[in-house]
TrEMBL record:
<dbReference type="InterPro" id="IPR017871">
    <property type="entry name" value="ABC_transporter-like_CS"/>
</dbReference>
<feature type="transmembrane region" description="Helical">
    <location>
        <begin position="177"/>
        <end position="195"/>
    </location>
</feature>
<feature type="transmembrane region" description="Helical">
    <location>
        <begin position="288"/>
        <end position="305"/>
    </location>
</feature>
<dbReference type="InterPro" id="IPR003439">
    <property type="entry name" value="ABC_transporter-like_ATP-bd"/>
</dbReference>
<keyword id="KW-0547">Nucleotide-binding</keyword>
<dbReference type="InterPro" id="IPR036640">
    <property type="entry name" value="ABC1_TM_sf"/>
</dbReference>
<dbReference type="InterPro" id="IPR011527">
    <property type="entry name" value="ABC1_TM_dom"/>
</dbReference>
<feature type="transmembrane region" description="Helical">
    <location>
        <begin position="260"/>
        <end position="282"/>
    </location>
</feature>
<feature type="domain" description="ABC transporter">
    <location>
        <begin position="353"/>
        <end position="588"/>
    </location>
</feature>
<keyword id="KW-0812">Transmembrane</keyword>
<dbReference type="Pfam" id="PF00005">
    <property type="entry name" value="ABC_tran"/>
</dbReference>
<keyword id="KW-1133">Transmembrane helix</keyword>
<keyword id="KW-1003">Cell membrane</keyword>
<keyword id="KW-0997">Cell inner membrane</keyword>
<keyword id="KW-0067">ATP-binding</keyword>
<dbReference type="GO" id="GO:0005524">
    <property type="term" value="F:ATP binding"/>
</dbReference>
<protein>
    <submittedName>
        <fullName>ATP-binding cassette domain-containing protein</fullName>
    </submittedName>
</protein>
Amino acid sequence: MRGMPAGISEDDKLDSEQAKHVLRRAARMMRPHRRQLWLAIGLIALYTLCILAGPYIVSWAIDSGITPRDAGVLNTAIAAYIVVALVHYVAQRTAITTLARVGETFLKDLRRRVFAHLQRLSMPFYDREKAGVIIARMTSDIDAMQELVQMGLLQFVSATMLLVLALILLFVMSWQLMFVCAIAIPFVVLASIKFQKDSNRAYLTVRDRIGSTLSNLQEGIAGVRVIQAFGRQEVESTRFAGENRGLYDAHMESVKVQSWYVPIIEFAGHFTTAIAIGVGGWMVTEDIVTIGVVAFFVLTLSNLFEPIQQLSQLFNQLQSSGAALQKLFELLDTDVDVAERPGAVDLPSEGEIEVRDVVFRYAPDGEDVLSGVNLTISPGERLALVGPTGAGKSTLAKLVARMYDPVEGTVSFGGVDLRDATLRSLRQRIVVVPQEGFLFHGTIRDNIRLVRPEATDADVVRALDALGLRERFEDLEDGLDTEVAERGSRLSAGEKQLVSLARAALIDPAVLVLDEATSSLDPGTEALVERALEVLMEGRTVIVIAHRLSTSERADRVGVVTEGTLRELGTHDELVAAGGHYAALYATWAGGLASTS
């Protein structure tokens, strides 16, 4: 008996049209592997026939070899049985490996396509979707198909063939005995339908309980310092014990479902075998059937109810896999919000940035985050954007970097609308340096080269030399070949930010968009990053989201963004003298510094 079949919620069930669409699309993806697929199906048919050939050979051996005592026929039957057993072994083993290879290749291609599409999807998509849901597409939805691909599909095809062929052969061998033995089949079918519904409900309860228990476990581990600090160990242990008990009860309920179904299938097999022997024996005495036919019935009936059991168990799994595939196809069909237009042109190597009548909102029916923004930034100018949290300054910087497209208006560089530019040239001309450097698993050299995979080791060293950072990294035990570990956990926050700056230097962009790259660093590392930043900003257009007004003091111009509009624009001295929003912000900031000194 296999474990509980995969459950599927009512919301995930596919209607007939959706199921047809998923099957057609999956079939198109399987076209490159159709020869292997047909080979696997042919092998399944072959070893299914071998399963039924065994009882037929025994029947023939009894009627034509044992009863008339014909040694030649008996020896032939023995040899034929051995050959059939060998063919069954080879066909089944080859079918398993062939079908698994096709299925795993399908999943491998699907994972690759989904991941590649996720990399192309723009920031609006990630604003709309929860990270957990996206991860679930690549994990739980793929896992939902994994068991089906490995053995489920094989069992489904084999069980269907075996059930159909067994019923046909039983009818051909003796339709009278077949009808007598078929008395148990309706009860088995009804029990299987009930099992499918009960097991699905039980599995969904188990799945919910597992999720709840794991969530409680994760929370307890993540918050262990707070729990111990306030002496909540007993309370949390009691709470977890309750969740754990719920999971235990759910599992036991699923066991109850199996405990009544399995004996019914076993009893049906024994009951029909008994009928076959009893009624078959009487039919033999009446010369209606032979002893070999009765033996064929006894042996074949043992293989008749197992396929029904397997099909009932696989039903939920098939539905669950179909629903998972539907979700993955929907993800693949998600449009790229910030896409490259046909006929896109490369941006010029330098030019002014123009923001004209820009309106932007994150959701189509949401409120305007920016409205009526107009701004011109000259080549080589440093512009600081200041304003309260949520005012729209970060959004404006992201529009300049074309992380988003404006709902209305245009953002252009060197006279070219960013929507008409090739994404390759856009990412070369305009580079964003985030507030916290993100590193990928690999070496420091790999992480710097991430932005230009074709860059040589000499190019990487030149980028570091340009910022005066070469010695900083070469002083590490393994130098530039130091492994940074996942998310750069082996490096400090400052070192991760220096790697981000080295990436930008390797690209050599015309425009830098900075989310105040030193605001979260300690004073010692901040000075080093500041020096590297000054070198990197030299001769480039710079847009910096200023969290501290000391940054805006050093900028050529300051833009004050409040309530989604560009309220003020000018030099630091001009805005202080004007006595507006910036002057009030600066006075508050300067007063805070004076009180802490």
